[in-house]
Amino acid sequence: MSAAVPILEVRDLKMHFSVGGSVLDRIAFGKGGIRLETPVVHAVNGVSFAINRGEIMALVGESGCGKSTVAKTIARIHKPTEGEIRVDGEDIAQYGFAKMLPVRSRMQMIFQDPYASLNPRQKVRDIVAEPLLQQTRTAAERKGVPARIEQLLAKVGLSVEHGGRYPHQFSGGQRQRIGIARALSVMPDLIIADEPVSALDVSIQAQILNLMMDLRDEFGLAYLFISHDLSVVHHIADTVGVMYLGFLVETAPRDALFSRPRHPYTRALLSAAPSIKERRAEDEISLGGEVPSALSLPSGCCFRTRCPLAWERCARERPRLADVGGGQKVACHLVDEPERDTA
Amino acid sequence: MSSFVQSEFFHNYTRSTSAILGSALMVGFVLAVTAGPFLVSQNPYDIAGLNLMDSYKPPFWMDGGDARFLLGTDGQGRDVWASILYGARISLFIGLVAMVASCVIGTFLGLVAGFYGGIIDSVIMRIADIQLSFPSILIALFLMSAVGTGVDKVLIALTAVGWVVYARTVRGTTLSEIKKEYVQAAKVAGLPNAKIIRKHVLPNVMTPLIVIATIQVGTFVLIEASLSFLGVGVPITQPSLGLLIKNGFDVLFSGLWWTSVFPGLAIMALVFGINLFGDFLRDELNPRLK
Amino acid sequence: MTAQTQNALLAVRDLRTHFHTFAGTVKAVNGVSFEIGTGEIMGLVGESGGGKSVVGFSILGLIDSPGKIEGGQILLDGEDLVTAGEPRLRQIRGRDISMVFQDPMTSLNPLHTVGQQMDEVLRLHTDLDAAARREACVAMLESVGISRAADRLGAYPHQFSGGMRQRVVIAIALLAQPRLIIADEPTTALDVTIQSQILKLMRQQIAARGASMILITHDLAVVSEMADHITVLYCGKVVERGPTRALIAAPAHPYTRGLIDSIPDPSNRHPRLRQIPGMVPDIRNLPPGCAFRARCPRAQALCAVEEPPLRALNAARSAACHYPLQPGEPA
User: Fold this and answer.
1) A112 contacts chain C (CB < 8 A)
2) Does the pLDDT at position B136 exceed 90?
3) Which residues in chain A are contacts of B191 at CB distance < 8 A?
4) Choosing among B181, B197, B205, which should be mutated to test the A contact, i.e. which has the most A CBs within 10 A?
């Protein structure tokens, strides 16, 4: 029965940040006299998806599309503005510190920057032990921690004596291994990986991706894998979600998404990705313009300001994520009016 | 220890004349104020040991100088050299204790302001801003006139002046540190905020404070001297270097210059040494200058 | 080879740039040679620590202490830039050779308008009058795809988005009609849709002006779309060079092969990526022999003893390997 419950289910997640600083900074002198302004960054605007046990879901998109915010909100580094985050069926969206603590043993995170994600003043073994120590209650449990740390270091390809060193003594790839060992320490079911290989050289990137795949096979881990690199996503993911300006514009099983992208933005993204294969120059869709500001979203469809196929309906009406079959969902009016799809 | 000797820091230190001179002055002062009182025969504040017949003796190399009083004596027949050793002890004690107190209070407030933000941050930082808009000597003067004089009152006044620079620096570094992923990782690991601040943020905001703290000891010695010179500092029974200058100042223009000039030179040498070493630390610890 | 040498715009011969740090001498560039013909785009590829950026800075004479060019020649049209001296290099920079950096925010001065920064290049390197300079700036901005160019001259760098800023940087780099552009990771900070715009723009502009370009990047995919030739660096040395398509299709050096295999390939659904084991050695104390030997699946006893020189494999290609891969041979 529990197999039917996804390890992670996100429903209509919204994350808005108010930017403005102190009261003094927000005073604005407008026509109607003095008023207080609170600019709001619409980082995530209603995102829904689910990940089954042992599955890898990738979120792709360009910088500022909200994919990292989704990851950090699910990991409850931020408290969501709205929406549900169900871990194994349990909605943790509004949990406080104490109720979150047991959830953190089921869900852990790997970070992007191998240099900033490890405290430079902590020894490696203390870094790796940190999540585990928060979950231990008794002295007996704590006694088992050092042995467990040794196992973990070995598991990610480091040795016992590495545990006594500081992060600056390691290369970027090794640091990322330390971060993975830290996430693994509590034996989670779900790991949220926020651009785990984008700061690494390509040869090291392959090592880390292989390690993550091996760990999934061994422990049945599920990953939420955030990346901007389509070739990496194509390699690792079972399901892919494409984000733009805080919206999920398309989600589909990997092969469907890469072979039959439905959303114009997905198509542009796929076509813009450089490849070492010889490219047929004609099939490139070039997007003009740039991503609008998340401070004031465009009306209707978030992508219409750059979409080569947009028409007046797109400005009027915000498309909803609609099922087009085969597990593929697209948020685009072209689904209703396929005759306009000239691409 | 051998790893310290081989470090780049030590290497650069051995090649920096100003750093060596500065630290030599600092070490010299510390040795002088700890061992010094045992080296001079006279305790300048033991009235029984004083002889009014010895008053206003010039330094030993001048006419009428006395070999017992290297730098001469004051109106009560106190040895100026002994007074300096005792006075520097009080000056340095005040500077160090006030620095530690400022550092602890300022760091705590800065951490809280930077980590929690919002109203707490606004309140703390606005107080700091208001405080910074007055000259620190003025604030100290106000406080001293309100609470009275005494070594403990001087410490309170200096701490009230000194915490701001730590709070502002720590708040700034805290704001940049808490954006780093290791702090987010600590949240995901399930650490409570107090532990995140103590284990993760605090150790990483300390480095710039070393420089500030070093220089501040010098600043505090100067402020204390000014307060004592103005007559609102330490009591006459515990004369710091500043009070020595004030005492000598009354007779400075009668040609009895040594009673205030030598304590003044002592302050200068101490602060100069602290600043030289502080500048070296600033260059070494600031990665942006590398 | 001789034909190429004669019409080479830039020839780098045995360049050695070392950094003397407290912890030891970093031989960032240690005997690098290559040539670029007129109108050619050459990709300089390698991982971090390979020395590729230092090559770019060395060509422009922008190596500061503790770095020093210890030897070799950088011949621009036969003139050696290593011995040219700073006054001559100042003339060359911006006019004959210009540079596009990774981060457009730091390569533009935030305190000056885009127009002022463009005008300065023209004042230094041309004798046009003010009106003609302005006209040239507007035309250049338009050619890099910035609309309302005349108005935008008065804007400050922070008023442009990342992609637009990089267009401005490219416009400035092209202004004085340089013969060689060194682009150091020009699109690494940009999003993929913006990256494809910028790459396309650079390709067009280079072709239209007949200029040459050195494209420094870690991204083999970018290089394979842009470059005519590729030079692969590892630990400060050239390990392989050759025409782009041939080199990617059949790499001869095991390191190049490893780099290409590390890129996830959608058409090749192996569950595991082929990875290069281990990591880049500390270049302050490289072992004797081949620097790649410890990570190389083909290493033999000879590799530990003798450092392989860069040897010609055929007319167009060369590799520094005792046992180069033959075309079609599995890794």
Assistant:
1) no
2) no
3) 130, 134
4) B181
For residue C210, count other CB atoms closer than 10 A to its CB: 10
The parent domain of residue C300 ranges over 1-96+210-331
ipTM of the complex: 0.87
* A67: contact with B, CB 8 A cutoff: no
pTM of this structure: 0.86
- What pLDDT sits at residue A155? 93
Number of structural domains (chain C) is: 1
Domain ranges of chain B: 15-289
Q: Are B267 and B242 in contact (CB under 8 A)?
A: yes
Predicted pLDDT at B128: 93
pLDDT digits (tens, 9 = 90+) for A138-149: 888 889 999 999
CATH class of B15-289: mainly alpha
Q: Does the pLDDT of residue A209 top 90, yes or no?
A: yes
Angle at B103 between CA B102 and CA B109, to 5 degrees: 90
Q: Which amino acid is at B152?
A: D
**CATH number of the domain residue C79 falls in:** 3.40.50.300
Q: Which of A36-40, A61-65, C267-271 has the lowest mean pLDDT?
A: C267-271
With a CB-CB cutoff of 8 Å, which residues 121-140 of chain A face chain B? 121-122, 130-131, 134-135
Q: Hey, is the C-beta of A286 within 8 angstroms of any chain C C-beta?
A: yes
pLDDT value for C195: 87
**pLDDT mean across residues, chain A:** 90
pLDDT over 70 (residue C248):
yes
Phi, psi angles (nearest 5°) of residue B147:
-100, -10
Nearest to A109 among B122, B188, B191 (CB): B188
- Per-residue pLDDT tens digits for A11-49: 999 999 987 666 666 677 766 677 777 788 999 999 999
Interface with B, mutate which of A119, A187, A191 (most B CBs under 10 A): A119
Inter-chain contacts counted by CB atoms under 8 A, chains A and B: 63
Q: Is residue C6 part of a domain?
A: yes
